[in-house]
Design goal:
The complex is a heterodimer of chains A (about 300) and B (about 280). Chain A is an alpha/beta fold and about 300 residues long. Helix content of chain A is about 35%, strand content about 25%. Chain B has one domain. The two termini of chain B are about 25 Å apart. In chain B, about 45% of the residues are buried.
């Protein structure tokens, strides 16, 4: 029990089956209080199914699951009372105003009208929507809607916030605004769980994450540690003429730590990307496209599964 | 294990409190959008009452007086005859509408059910909340209708007030099974068939506008078996003050069983759909 004392979510051999199909295939993970924990993986990896089980919205098919110290199979309402969910779909009521959406949602948690009202106004400020309180949801931009959904998830003052693909479909500026708010929540000590197929999002936000693929966990760790373990400090991406490929590969295989051959490019892993590039250019090859960058979670995923994260 | 967590204390809600929160959601939402429901719930039934009960009723009464020497059906004016029929039929229409498109909407358009599912509410509360709201709508619509009908002099007994709870039961008898079906649909294409093949024939041939004794024998038996007929008979008994007549208990039992059975099926289909 002392092991679990600071554990908000504890899963052992957690499984979800839909008929013959196994969406989540016996995964183990633990999430500590105050942690920002990520599930990274492509669409169909089992992230959302895992999320729904943790949020006590979907029964598990097998394994153990403890959320906020309780068993979702018996204590669903009690557990959900302390969880804020930001679903993939906005799930906002477009016939109502921004403020009404918050008021209505707060009432599900049995909060008195006055309390809900006070919190709603404070949350609108948090979400930078204070001047939109009376606007119809229809009139909001995608980024504003997402921030409203996040604000709504906070109405019950949850100690665990679950975000399912929170920035999918948002432009870069809107994403950054969402990230900023999430970071603020983390600093207040809220435990956050994030699913995403954006590696930069996982890298920037998560303290720790699991890489999911085909219902299983392929790796677990802090973003930088995973990158150090499965990638390299730098990555050289080369786009080459078909005729230059073999020659370049010969050089690179000799000097790079590792080379991944993708349909449109080569990814070469090493300490110094520019140095690798020089070696290639020395042989008289002129690449059509060159990018030297730091190793990322994308590379981790590629290494672990042989596939890229976003196709 | 709960004691090792310093979570905010969660007060265990009283029984029924969670269902009440779901019902309150629909009522609150209605308080913001009720204007768009006026036409179907208030105006149409009254237009029927005026056009058929009073307009057509005038002709019918004349015709009956010329043919049979008395301008009445079973001793009452056509207006008094048709008013409870329109009331029962309106409850069916309101319930079927509310149990189709808004259920689809809550499921896949604005995801209201998803929001409820992420809150402390359980699936059973979600079902009770939405069906309960259909009952609330019937309560308001039937009360208003009966007040106006009384103003027209269409009601001949104080028992007519019992028409309100019966209207609620009629609405639930239709709303519960239809919602149970609607939640299983992936799109709204089946809903117009429910209207065409279910609501419209029932509306015309369940004794709302003429006594089913006018129908050929085969159709008469069929009509007597329809759920709307039970509602029409009961509403008519209320407005004429004959609620105590034998057989009414059976009509009521029919509707209660349909509402209860519909609720049980809805709980099952909602679980399969929402709790996957």
């Amino acid at each position: 029990m002392s092991l679990l004392s600071d554990t908000v979510v504890h899963a052992r051999q957690l499984t979800k089956r839909f008929g013959e199909f196994t969406a989540v295939d016996g995964i183990d993970f633990s999430i500590s209080r105050g942690e920002f924990f990520g599930f990274l993986g492509p669409n169909g990896a089992g992230k959302t199914s895992t999320m729904r089980m943790v949020a006590c919205m979907s029964p598990r098919s097998g394994g153990e699951l403890v959320v906020r110290g309780m068993d979702p199979a018996h204590d669903g309402p009690e557990i959900r009372a302390g969880i804020g969910l930001v679903p993939q779909e906005d799930a906002l009521d477009t016939e109502l105003t921004v403020l009404d959406n918050l008021l209505l949602y707060g009432r599900y948690f049995g909060l008195p009208r006055k309390v809900v009202r006070e919190r709603s106004l404070a949350l609108l400020t948090f979400a930078q929507l204070e001047d939109r309180a009376g606007a119809k949801v229809d009139a909001l931009s995608g980024g504003m809607r997402r921030r409203l959904v996040i604000a709504r998830a906070l109405i019950s003052r949850p100690d665990l916030v679950i975000l399912d693909e929170p920035t999918t479909g948002l432009d870069p500026q809107a994403r950054h605004l969402v990230w900023e708010r999430l970071y603020q929540l983390k600093q207040q000590g809220v435990t956050l769980i994030l699913t995403t197929h954006y590696m930069d999002e996982a890298e920037q936000l998560c303290d720790r994450l699991v890489v999911m693929d085909r219902g299983q966990i392929a790796a677990e760790g802090a973003p930088r540690a995973l990158i150090a373990k499965y990638s390299s400090r730098e990555v050289l991406e080369l786009r080459l003429e078909e005729t230059d490929r073999a020659r370049a590969l010969a050089v690179l295989r000799e000097h790079a730590e590792r080379v991944e051959v993708l349909t449109d490019r080569l990814c070469c892993y090493g300490e110094d990307g520019d140095q690798l590039l020089e070696l290639v250019q020395h042989t008289g090859i002129h690449p059509q496209g060159v990018l030297v960058r730091r190793g990322s979670l994308e590379d981790v995923f590629l290494r672990l599964t042989g596939r890229s994260l976003v196709d | 294990m709960a004691d090792v967590f310093t979570v905010a204390p969660v007060l265990t809600p009283r029984p029924g409190a969670l269902s009440w929160r779901a019902l309150r959601f629909w009522c609150f939402r209605w308080s913001r959008t009720w204007r768009s429901t006026l036409a179907g719930n208030v105006v149409y039934p009254l237009v029927y009452l005026a056009a058929i009960g009073i307009g057509l009723g005038h002709l019918v009464n004349h015709h009956l007086a010329a043919e049979h020497g008395a301008g009445t059906i079973g001793g009452v004016s056509y207006l008094a005859f048709v008013t409870p029929g329109i009331l029962a039929a309106s409850m069916m229409q309101i319930a079927v509408h509310e149990a189709t498109y808004p259920v689809m909407g809550a499921m896949r358009w604005d995801y209201a059910y998803l929001g409820q599912l992420a809150s402390p509410l359980r699936i059973g509360d979600i079902v009770i909340g939405h069906l309960g709201f259909i009952g609330v709508r019937a309560l308001f619509a039937s009360s208003f209708f009966l007040i106006v009908a009384a103003g027209f002099g269409a009601l001949s007994s104080p028992e007519a007030m019992c028409g309100v709870p019966i209207a609620v039961v009629v609405a639930l008898a239709f709303g519960a099974p239809v919602a149970a079906f609607a939640v299983t649909r992936d799109n709204d294409s089946a809903f117009s068939s429910i209207q065409r093949l279910g609501v419209v024939p029932l509306f015309l041939f369940s004794g709302c506008f003429f006594p089913i004794s006018e129908l050929p024998a085969v159709l008469r038996v069929l009509a007597m078996g329809t759920p709307l007929y039970q509602g029409v008979v009961l509403e008519r008994a209320c407005s004429l003050g004959t609620l105590g007549a034998p057989g009414n208990l059976a009509h009521a039992a029919y509707l209660v069983v349909m509402a209860g059975g519909g609720f049980a099926i809805a709980r099952h289909t909602y679980r399969r759909r929402l709790g996957r």
